[in-house]
Automatic annotation (TrEMBL):
Lineage per the UniProt record: Bacteria, Pseudomonadati, Pseudomonadota, Gammaproteobacteria, Pseudomonadales
Binding residue positions for Fe cation: H111, H115, D304
Domain Gcp-like: 24-311
Function per UniProt: Required for the formation of a threonylcarbamoyl group on adenosine at position 37 (t(6)A37) in tRNAs that read codons beginning with adenine. Is involved in the transfer of the threonylcarbamoyl moiety of threonylcarbamoyl-AMP (TC-AMP) to the N6 group of A37, together with TsaE and TsaB. TsaD likely plays a direct catalytic role in this reaction.
Keyword terms: Acyltransferase, Cytoplasm, Iron, Metal-binding, Transferase, tRNA processing
Family matches, as HAMAP family: TsaD
Main location: cytoplasm
Name of the protein this chain belongs to: tRNA N6-adenosine threonylcarbamoyltransferase
Alphabetical list of Pfam families matching this protein: TsaD
Cofactor binding mode and count: Binds 1 Fe(2+) ion per subunit.
EC number: 2.3.1.234
Species assigned in the record: Ectopseudomonas oleovorans (Pseudomonas oleovorans)
PANTHER family listed in its UniProt record: TRNA N6-ADENOSINE THREONYLCARBAMOYLTRANSFERASE (PTHR11735), TRNA N6-ADENOSINE THREONYLCARBAMOYLTRANSFERASE, MITOCHONDRIAL (PTHR11735:SF6)
Cellular component aspect of the GO annotation: cytoplasm
Gene transcribed to yield this protein: tsaD
């Protein structure tokens, strides 16, 4: 089955062609980061308009790259939520219109299920069951995964998502959007031990997270550095390192706890923050000690992309699921409500 996947939930237009027999044939991405950077974050209306502009040229591009024609496509998969409603509607209407015109089925995919399954596109995919840490700009969740659509939420962020905390901390120090990669880069030159940030909620047995306090801690530290006339370039690096260490250690502690409680030793990390090298290294060390394994996607499939949507949609289509012709998207959509396949 050849599936064309469209991702438009936020500020990336992603398009990919996935073949259930041959794997990923082509994928293309247009990132709107430069468009939103001047505003310090995503402007929803600009995002929607840009998706409209990019979608059809990207579809043509992946078809050309894969040497395929519209008539070869068996089905469409699009992100139906969660995300920005206007942006989601662009992908959903485009997918439903093409599906109608080509006489093929379409399926709406849950964005976080897309992220969760992205490591399945790698050479050594994880086997069910496993614990998944989903860390993106909008979500921080620990989930027990027994199969596609068999999700048990173990814990989640009570306030800011991990990626959001990276973005806000970067912004308050005058760094560019998105802040995750900026902080990760600066942290490499930070002075270990100059600042120590708290590890929020690690003294409690439950698996929920809270990251908003770290941003406040970073703000206070940044202001102290400014007031005392410190070298601000070095202060940025040192705060970046202390902040990243706090997030990474907090996530690692909770992952270890979730694995122990579930009796599993296989961990999947997915979403934009799973591209973070320090997080990968920490989790690899921890899973090594547990004689387990950590799985993640190549960096460009950690952040938003069309390949994960084409893959997730394909699995559900193969199981006989698809939508009617209505164009439905959801800004909020709990992943546990998805049907099992
Ligand atoms: O999954 P994603 O592309 O979009 C959402 O679904 O939200 O995640 C974007 C988030 C942003 O907050 C970005 O700062 C963060 O992922 N991110 C990172 C890194 N790369 C992206 N955070 C930490 N380290 C990175 N290397
Ligand atoms: Zn995402």
């Amino acid at each position: 089955m050849l599936v064309l996947g469209l991702e438009t939930s936020c500020d990336e237009t992603g398009v990919a062609l996935y073949d259930s027999e041959r794997g990923l044939l082509a994928d293309a991405l247009f990132s709107q980061i430069d468009l939103h950077r001047v505003y310090g974050g995503v402007v929803p209306e600009l995002a929607s308009r840009d998706h409209v502009k990019r979608m059809l040229p990207l579809i043509r591009q992946v078809l050309d790259e894969a040497g395929k024609q519209a008539s070869d496509i068996d089905a469409l998969a699009y992100t139906a939520g969660p995300g920005l409603v206007g942006a989601l509607l662009v992908g959903a209407s485009c997918a439903q219109a093409l599906a109608f015109a080509w006489g093929v089925p379409a399926i709406g995919v849950h964005h976080m299920e897309g992220h969760l399954l992205a490591p399945m596109l790698e050479e050594q995919p994880p086997a069910f069951p496993f614990v998944a840490l989903l860390v993106s700009g909008g979500h921080t969740q620990l989930v027990r995964v027994d199969g596609i659509g068999q999700y048990q939420l173990l814990g989640e962020s009570l306030d800011d998502a991990a990626g959001e905390a990276f973005d806000k901390t970067a912004k308050l120090m005058g760094l560019n959007y998105p802040g995750g990669p900026e902080i990760a880069k600066l942290a490499e030159q930070g002075t270990p031990g100059r600042f120590v940030f708290p590890r929020p909620m690690t003294d409690r047995p439950e698996l929920d997270f809270s990251f908003s306090g770290l941003k406040t801690f970073a703000l206070n530290t940044w202001q102290q550095c400014r007031d005392s006339g410190d070298d601000l370039d070095q202060a940025r690096r040192d705060i970046a390192l202390a902040f990243q260490q706090a997030v990474v250690e907090t996530l690692t502690i909770k992952c270890k706890r979730a694995l122990k409680q579930s009796g599993l030793n296989s961990l999947v990390i997915a979403g934009g923050v799973s591209a973070n090298k320090a997080l990968r290294e920490h989790l690899e060390r921890m899973l090594g000690e547990m004689k387990g394994k950590v799985f993640y996607a190549r960096p460009r499939f950690c952040t938003d992309n069309g390949a994960m949507i084409a893959y997730a949609g394909c699995q559900r289509l193969l199981a006989g699921q698809h939508e009617d012709l209505a164009i439905k998207v959801q800004a909020r959509w709990p992943m546990e409500s998805l049907p099992a396949i």
